[in-house]
Amino acid sequence: MTYQLGNLLAAFTLPIQQALAKEHGYPFALAATIVSVFVAVAVLTAVGSEARGIRVRERGELGGRAARGQARGGLTGPATVSGMRDAVADAAVDLAVELVRIDSVNPALVPGAAGEGAIIDLLAGRLADPGAELEIIDAAGTAGRPSLVATFRGSGGGRSILLNGHVDTVGVHGMAEPFAGRVQGDRETGRLHGRGACDMKAGIAAMVAAAAAVAAAGTAGDVGLALVADEEPGSVGARAVLEHLTGRLPDACLVGEPTGLDLVVAQRGYALIDVTLTGRAAHTSQPQLGVNAVAHLGRLLTAVEASNARVAAGAAHPLVGTGSLLATSASGGSSPFVLPDSAHALIERRTVPGESAEQALEEVEGIVRHLRDADSDVQAVAVLTLARDPWESDTSSPVGSALVRDLEAALSARGRTASRVGAPYWTESALTQAAGLPTVVCGPSGGGVHAADEWVDLAELRTYATALRDAVAAFAGPL
Q: Would you say 342 and 274 are in contact if contact means Cβ atoms under 8 Å apart?
């Protein structure tokens, strides 16, 4: 700007100086030139100071708004969605580090473990400050296992959304520093290490940061979060929350499990079948007097492996492939010199959309019948102990389709092409959709899920947080 004004003043004063030189001579013109220079300098200094003042005030106003957001836990800031991109990403990373540093190992998996109380307390505090309505939900018979429902109310007339994630983790066996929350590299492109970083505290952090930002900007529809306990073995938290919300369910649900920012629209389920084999004890020097349950266990395991080959060769689902059948634990006998009179196996059947837990139980019972037909001494009972249904997104739902499109558009704006994929694992999307909520699964990934070196990609977390903010704003905005 200064250079342009200088040229303008020079162009203005030059004809005057030439005229003065012609009329009064060059000494007079030289004096006039010096005066012109002083005038030009004074004008440019004043203009430059004003321009600098404008820039300083802009920075000061932005800094003040950012400071006010920081004072509220770093989850809010400017009251415009477009101005929140960096702030939302930063808030998501900061909160993810905090969450990883909290022990929330599931006591149903590790007796005596910390559970979800401390992490729910932290999240409730963070969400209360920007104005969410909070409800703490305890599942029946699970004292000290809270889940949190937080709702940012809209102005009315828009679609409502529920952001779902589980706060519990598996155990920490083999991990040197499971709760250190160590960042490798920088917070833009590095990795966050620790139990739950990928599964799924990073996803929760992004959902909390995005929801607070959208609420600060204002929406027509409600934006809710269901941060639940006990996903890993039993989903008692999600079941309690869905029961609590009966009659006031939102329009759609997003589950923030790690997907590499793809959109999971189908997943496998599972059925756990406990098989108990009964024999007859005898001295091992006279095995003909007893029935060896461990020998029958060996035949069962061989038959399960053969059946898995048949399952894998069956018709494949277009997104999740085929199911599987495998033994995950086996035991039998008690000591030397005693023919074992009992044995046990746990059989896991992974199911695909169109298959059921009852079908899985029938398959295992068929294996047992085949063994009994071959040897009348075989005595075995198969019991279905736990099952989770496979799931496929409801493509006929206009609301669910709108949520998918909004997510795809927000990710595409950040250079990410979100594929619609299937997942081999199970998430609580099956429960939310069964309750009547069209559901999609999308979240940031990393590596080492349930392993000794779990981590999440911070660049992916940042992208997810800002994309989620824009997608939720579009979905819950005026219709």
A: no
